[in-house]
Design goal:
This protein is of the alpha+beta class. It folds into two domains: 99 residues; 163 residues, Beta Barrel (Thrombin, subunit H). 35% of the residues lie in helices and 27% in strands. Strands 1-2-5-4-3-12 form a six-stranded antiparallel barrel. A six-stranded antiparallel beta barrel has the order 6-7-8-11-10-9. It is rod-shaped. It starts with a helix and ends in a 27-residue tail after the last strand.
């Protein structure tokens, strides 16, 4: 292999010496002929080299753009997370301010609590809160939010308490209809199958004049729930069951004022404040007695 290389080099050297010894015009013609012969290869090489350089520059630009794109995506993700965090903090701040204002205006002594667990056997029946005996919580205390009544405390531990929701059938509240002044018993009706958790207001006078979306409040009777806490709105009249009871009473469907599926923070009422009842809470209208003779006869 080495001998062949030496022979090729020697042959090329001989050709160069011959060209040098030729006359100048003939040498120029040979040079021009060689140049014309190699010109296409030179042009191809030049174009190929230019293409390689352009490809290399494009590859570098693509790599740089890819890096910049990845960096911009990361920055956008970080900014989106910060915006979401800021929005959540703003929402929590507004909620806390509203809760503080509600606590200050309320006629009740309120202990704020956070829902930390829901009953796994029945999502709607009860929740566990992070306040207990060490915070002054006892059984049978009312639990509410800014929107209305949530339920009552049924079990107390040292640092936690279990709250029975008003839509549980075991939770009964004495309620009154603000617009008409009639009383009744509000009982949970979670399995009503009427498009969501509801309550029923039982033993309402048959002749009660109901208005659309009448509001139902706690009456204060029974000693568990103070007067004036919003329970919910009347949505419809329940179909009559026993005909004998139907002659005296009617039952109503009540939609709770509080979205019990989404509660996070609640208040536990531990008593009344020394000052008087604020104007913000409604007062039960007086119920005027009516003579039996004024009632129309039952069909």
């Amino acid at each position: 292999m080495r001998k062949r290389s030496l022979l090729a080099a020697a042959g090329l050297l001989v050709i160069l010496l011959v060209i040098i010894r030729l006359q100048v015009p003939f040498a120029l013609r040979v040079k021009d002929a060689l140049s014309e012969g190699f010109l296409p290869f030179i042009e191809f090489s030049t174009r190929f080299q230019g293409s390689l350089q352009e490809l290399s520059q494009r590859t570098k630009r693509y790599t740089r753009l890819q890096v910049e794109n990845t960096d911009l995506r990361r920055q956008l993700s970080e900014l989106s997370s910060r915006v979401a965090e800021a929005s959540e903090l703003e929402r929590e701040n507004r909620n806390f301010r509203a809760m503080l204002d509600f606590k200050n205006r309320s006629e009740f002594k309120l202990i704020p609590a956070r829902v930390i667990e829901r009953d796994p056997s029945n999502w709607w029946s009860s929740v566990l809160v992070d306040r207990g005996a060490s915070d002054g919580v006892t059984r049978e205390l009312p639990v509410l939010t800014m929107d209305g009544l949530v339920g009552k405390v049924i079990e107390v531990m040292q640092n936690n308490a279990r709250v029975l929701l008003i839509i549980d059938e075991n939770c009964k509240v004495s309620g009154w209809l603000k617009e008409s002044g009639y009383y009744g018993i509000v009982q949970g009706n979670v399995l009503s199958g009427r498009g969501g958790a509801q309550c029923r207001m039982l033993f309402v006078d048959r002749f009660a004049q109901l208005q659309p979306n009448d509001k139902v409040y706690t009456s204060g009777l029974g000693g568990v729930f103070p007067k004036g806490i919003l329970i919910g709105n009347v949505t419809s009249v329940a179909p009559a069951g026993d005909s004998r009871k139907a002659a005296l009473y009617q039952s109503l469907y009540v939609t709770p004022a509080v979205d019990l599926a989404r509660i996070d923070e609640v208040f536990i009422g531990v008593g009344a404040k020394p000052q008087g009842t604020p104007a913000a809470l409604p007062a039960a209208p007086p119920v005027r007695p009516r003579l039996r003779s004024q009632r129309p006869s039952a069909p």
